[in-house]
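FYI - complex with phosphoenolpyruvate, inputs then prediction.
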Amino acid sequence: MKTIEEPMLPIQNVNVHDSIRLVAPKELKETYKRTDKVTQTVGESRENIKRILSGEDQRLIVVVGPCSIHDPQAAVEYAKRLKELSSKVDDHMFLIMRVYFEKPRTTVGWKGLINDPHLDGTFDVSSGLKIARQLLLQIGEIGLPTATEMLEPITPQYIADVISIASIGARTTESPTHRQMASGLSMPVGYKNGTDGSLDVALNAMLAAQSPHSFLGIDADGQTCVINTKGNPWGHLILRGGRSGPNYQREHLKAAADRLRSAGLSPHFLVDCSHANSNKDYRNQGIVWNDVIDQRVAGNETIIGLMLESNLHAGNQKLTDDLSQLQYGVSITDECIDWEETESLILTAHEKLA
Ligand SMILES: O=C[C@H](O)[C@H](O)COP(=O)(O)O
Ligand SMILES: C=C(OP(=O)(O)O)C(=O)O
């Protein structure tokens, strides 16, 4: 029998190795400040997106870029190309670069540049946040709006002021924590349907995030606090397919619009050409893209945007211990289409839309 004198079993931090303090959001933002140009890029693009979401602007949103950012230099090269392309199509399309720093994994794997910027399991989150913010500032300076997935509920304090549109991923759309976070974000937020293909979780997320919430978070000084939000009215659905198959075809879009209407939500959405809509094969993204563009050209105005996973070069590569083997401009997460195909898909769609 145990007595009180016996050494106690540890009851705290049983599975915690250690914890490392981070710079406060305010400090990082003071070191890496928004210029007037960046503020203008973010402010104006958020307004453009809202006008598209409310039907005042008929242009098509295109969220396009790498599955994940792992090399800021390649990301800047991509951004410069995309900015040039954007100016050729901006009468009918509004291009936004995917700048995804946080990757939700099905089980385990590299969790993105913020979590592990050196790609070597050292998890230097402090550098990850700095590199992410610096890159967003560089892209904003180029005049290109950015989209990202908000995964860690603390990250927005460090980078949200340089993001034009956010998404909540298929793995977290059902999470109350992410819905609360979205209710306080300052930019429009897209909710992916669930990995099983369910629309319910995304519709419920949109309804939940429209409402005010009070929850735990950190403030600009990094102090834990209660955050009281007003609710974010700029939610929208993103169709990404699911285990049951893709959901970009005519009948799926009709069903999605009907479901949105019956939930009292605006019947419009973005279609993700990748993930389960492409069966995670980059060669299928163009098929999905062309199908959805043709539906839009035929008059389906419930389609307000598309998403493409695209990089400088096609496909993907494995992340191994030997980082010298990494090919420049190739994804280390999901497969992407290359720049040439990206440009061709966008220019062809522009002609059709015109
Ligand atoms: O977009 C990226 C991936 O689809 C997502 O992070 C899940 O990846 P995984 O299934 O390879 O973990
Ligand atoms: C992880 C992503 O997508 P999903 O949540 O749809 O799997 C993504 O867009 O990077």
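The domain at 25-353 is CATH 3.20.20.70 (TIM Barrel). The chain has one domain: 25-353.
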